[in-house]
Amino acid sequence: MFYIIGGVATLLFILVAILFKEKPKHPPSRAQSLSYALASPDASYLSSIVRLFKNLNFVLLVITYGLNTGAFYALSTLLNRMVILHYPGEEVNAGRIGLTIVISGMLGAVISGIWLDRSKAYKNLCHPNCLIQ
């Protein structure tokens, strides 16, 4: 089964690499046409990455996202062992705890998005030098 999936994925990769062009002959909109005209030819991928990591807000976002994700992965990986150590035979409840963590995270993200959208408080959450201003 893995060979079949690997073969299909490889075939699709080869087709994309051969058939897809970098950009269409004609821009799909006026905005995209203007974007092509204003794009600097000397902009490289490496310079974009360097510019990103010089942005304090981006670095703080990467650090906080990494800490949050790392803590979640560590907790979810060790959750079963932690629960079974203190409550033997409660494997089902360990699964329920994990499900509760995931669902509460999803609901928190949705509620936060709705609240930010209604309150228009995006700028209040930004550093004074934020790019979103």
UniProtKB/TrEMBL annotation:
<keyword id="KW-1133">Transmembrane helix</keyword>
<dbReference type="InterPro" id="IPR049680">
    <property type="entry name" value="FLVCR1-2_SLC49-like"/>
</dbReference>
<dbReference type="InterPro" id="IPR036259">
    <property type="entry name" value="MFS_trans_sf"/>
</dbReference>
<dbReference type="GO" id="GO:0015232">
    <property type="term" value="F:heme transmembrane transporter activity"/>
</dbReference>
<dbReference type="InterPro" id="IPR011701">
    <property type="entry name" value="MFS"/>
</dbReference>
<dbReference type="GO" id="GO:0097037">
    <property type="term" value="P:heme export"/>
</dbReference>
<feature type="transmembrane region" description="Helical">
    <location>
        <begin position="56"/>
        <end position="75"/>
    </location>
</feature>
<keyword id="KW-0812">Transmembrane</keyword>
<keyword id="KW-0472">Membrane</keyword>
<keyword id="KW-0813">Transport</keyword>
<feature type="transmembrane region" description="Helical">
    <location>
        <begin position="95"/>
        <end position="116"/>
    </location>
</feature>
<dbReference type="GO" id="GO:0005886">
    <property type="term" value="C:plasma membrane"/>
</dbReference>
<dbReference type="Pfam" id="PF07690">
    <property type="entry name" value="MFS_1"/>
</dbReference>
<protein>
    <submittedName>
        <fullName>FLVCR choline and putative heme transporter 2</fullName>
    </submittedName>
</protein>
<feature type="transmembrane region" description="Helical">
    <location>
        <begin position="6"/>
        <end position="22"/>
    </location>
</feature>
<keyword id="KW-1003">Cell membrane</keyword>
<dbReference type="GO" id="GO:0020037">
    <property type="term" value="F:heme binding"/>
</dbReference>
